[in-house]
Design goal:
This protein has 70 residues and is mainly α. Helices cover 47% and strands 0% of the residues. The protein has 2 helices and no strands. The longest helix has 20 residues. It is elongated and about 45 Å long.
Length: 70
């Protein structure tokens, strides 16, 4: 995995884990409020070709199937 891809994936994972933690009973919401903006701002630019509207996205080379494709 490229270094930029790894950083992006790690940050997205941390944001997801923080969101799950925030929904737990007894979560420290002050912690969530303090950490989430900094973590979101640290999210790097997505690597080229990661999203369908990106010019580098490869629809024929293993991109995710569109809903409704059978």
């Amino acid at each position: 995995m490229c270094p930029d891809c790894e950083d992006f994936a790690r940050t997205v994972l941390l944001l997801g884990q923080l969101a799950l933690y925030a929904d737990m009973a007894g979560a420290d919401l002050d912690f969530v409020d303090a950490v989430s903006p900094s973590l979101a701002v640290s999210l790097p630019e997505p690597p080229p070709g990661m999203f369908p509207d990106d010019p580098g996205y490869d629809l024929d080379g293993g991109g995710p199937a569109s809903p409704g494709d059978v």
